[in-house]
Amino acid sequence: MKFQKRTLGLIIYFILLMLPIYWMLNMSLRTNADILSFFSFYPQNPTLANYIKIFTDPSWYSGYLNSFYYVSMNVVISLVTALPAAYAFSRYSFLGDKHLFFWLLTNRMAPPAVFLLPFFQLYSTFGLIDTHFAVALSHCLFNVPLAVWVLEGFMSGVPREIDEMAYIDGYSFPRFFLTIFTPLIRTGIGVTAFFCFMFSWVELLLARTLTTTAAKPIAAIMTRTVSASGLDWGLLAAAGILTIVPGALVIWFVRNHLAKGFALGRV
Amino acid sequence: MNKWENNKAWFMVIPVFLVVAVSAIIPLMTVVNYSLQDIFGPGQRVFVGLEWYQDALTDPRLHAALNRQLLFSTLVLLIEIPLGILIALMMPKKGWGASLSLVLVALPLLIPWNVIGTIWIIFMRPDIGLLGAAVNGMGIPFDHTASPFAAWVTVMLMEVWHWTPLVVLLAYAGLQAIPDAYFQAARIDGASAWGIFRYIQLPKLRGVLTIAVLLRFMDSFLIYAEPFVLTGGGPGNSTTFLSIYLVKLAVGQFDLGPAAAFSIIYFLIVLLFSWLFYQALLKVGTGDKS
């Protein structure tokens, strides 16, 4: 009985959650004139014209590739730098540790609007404007602190006796970290990788400011659907549906890490 | 919490420090620099001291925007945190149901923010939008471009729809990380579902919930693209949140100095509240520790 009530609640939530996305899917399969002229629960004259335009026009599909390049770079940089730092914060006390830990998070607290200009100046000084690396590095500003915080939380959940026992057994630190510790917190790594991917994927202001053509992200290209004749809703909806796909694939790949959870007693 | 004393741990933190500091410190100094000057054009600037700060602190429109922002963020936290925990508790723990739930729940998070606003514009349209047509079809006049109340309801709905999944994912991962032994022990003791939640799950979730509360607070306090696209800050000024007002000031009036001073004050407000939340959540934890 309890199980059924719980499942019912979940199903209702998911239906509500999917409604706006269903509406986007519905619009993406209709032409713009069709969308604006009448209300319809489903596409009555379904057309793939919007998707065909995106897949055949390089200025559209290159946006997805650009976003994908810098987001991947960002996820790798964030995880590689954050893993040792999070371990240090969760296991050791050192000079200024608490202040440094909170300072990291303060980098997510500045309103971006006015900061865009100095960002542009800084990255043009280094000649990095319009490169994928520039966007990946600038997104570290909000992703690395998040990665450190989330990973630290998961690492603190692992009893320290595990570290001690591994050292007694003669494991070196790198070997312990890679073969024992990392598998123990794989849930946390999965969540962190997904969050870094997600925040970098949807960020618009920095990515748009630091790029002109060669590394322009898809979110910026989508703002072009506003033209003199108004918004092309169908094209925008199709592009929106396609922006969901890569992230959905990422979460599909990390789902086992999320779902299997904490396997205590592996050591 | 007696951690190992070891200052060499700094070497593990240095990469993070460098990667973040590059993008953090120089732009912040530049904005502080702007905020103390009156800038007429390239090379033409006058030092004005704290004048812009005084102006900003006495600006009644800024106070109104701040009040709106505080109300908005409070509502966001009150709705999204409990709802997120509830959904995470309801989600299956293993099998295909768990995989499907995870993928579905993450979908709204993956849409670029400007697109979210655009999709909700049409979703709420009384003539061709699903929710707009449904609500108006029930005989309730609902137009987020005309009524401030409807605009608030729409922005809140969009916000809860978009961001509750973040809380769900964090809480779900936190729940998964609780070893089964805890539940077995509780079952032997004959604990009720509420007892298990209150004394096992909730204390174990403290870490991830601290992150969830801080993230939701910061991001909702800085929210810009979604409400701006959806309502443009209107009708009137009813949904002009702090960052929308800031952009109006910075872009609309080409006033870099006052906008920079505003940004610094804005940053300090977020910092103050986040710090208070952080301290409060740390205290809650020590009280619950068994």
Report Rg of chain B.
Answer: 23 Å
The structural class of chain B is mainly alpha
Poorly predicted residue ranges of chain B: none
Number of helices of chain A: 13
Strand count of chain A: 3
Mean pLDDT of chain A: 83
Amount of helix of chain B: over 70%
Measured between the Cα atoms of the first and last residue of chain B, the distance is 13 Å
For the record, the CATH class of chain B is Mainly Alpha
Which class best fits the helix and strand makeup of chain A?
A: mainly alpha
Low-confidence stretches of chain A: 261-267
The major sheet of chain A is characterized as: 2 strands, antiparallel
Largest sheet of chain B: 2 strands, antiparallel
SSE order of chain A, as H and E? HHHHEHHHHHHHHEEH
End-to-end CA span of chain A? 39 Å
User: What letter string, H or E per element, gives the SSE order of chain B?
Assistant: EHEEHHHHHHHHHHHH
Structure description:
The complex is a heterodimer of chains A (267) and B (290). Helices cover 75% and strands 2% of the residues of chain A. With 267 residues, chain A is an all-alpha fold. In chain A, strand 2 and strand 3 form a beta hairpin. The radius of gyration of chain A is 23 Å and the shape is globular. Chain B has 290 residues and is mainly alpha-helical. Chain B has a single domain, classed as MetI-like fold, CATH 1.10.3720.10. Chain B is built from 13 helices and three strands. In chain B, strands 2-3 form a two-stranded antiparallel sheet. In chain B, a hairpin with a 2-residue loop joins strand 2 (37-41) and strand 3. In chain B, helix 2 packs across helix 13 (256-288). The chains are: A mainly alpha (267), B mainly alpha (290). Chains A and B meet through helix 1, helix 4, strand 1, helix 5 and helix 6 of A and strand 1, helix 1, helix 3, helix 4 and helix 5 of B. Strand 1 (92-93) of chain A pairs parallel with strand 1 (4-5) of chain B.
